[in-house]
Amino acid sequence: MFKWLKRVISTVFVVFFLAVGVFFAIRNPQLIPLDLVFWQGPQLSVALYIILSFTVGTCVALLISSITYMRSERQIKVLTRKYEKARDEVDTLRKASIAKELSVGKE
Domain coordinates of the chain in residue numbers? Predict the structure, then answer.
């Protein structure tokens, strides 16, 4: 029902953040070297390093959340099987109880 509103809001956010990113890149053209403890990176613009860090962070977050999602899905399957087994057992016991009551009533 509100799919179009969600798409419009998402599009506005994407365009806004792209505009902020372009503005940031234009306002910060200076090159900086990335100096880590064990490695020194090439001189790139500040905006490029920030975009790369966001991209790497997004990939790591997606990987971790997908692992969590797969674990949850597996647990849901296991619990569904246990539930179905328990439901079948309860149905069997109910049928046996009804059959026993009917046989006792005939005597």
Answer: 1-54, 72-107
Nearest residue to 17 via CA among 45, 47, 62, 43: 47
**What's the predicted TM-score (pTM) here?**
0.56
6 residue type, one letter? K
Calculate the CA 95 to chain-centre distance.
Answer: 43
Q: What local confidence, expressed as pLDDT, does residue 103 receive?
A: 72
- Binning pLDDT at 50, 70 and 90, where does residue 76 land? very high
Q: What DSSP element (H or E) covers 22?
A: helix 3-27
Distance CA 95, CA 102 (A): 11
CA distance 86 to 76: 15
Tell me if 47 sits within 8 A of 24, measured CB to CB.
Answer: yes
Strand partners, 31: 45
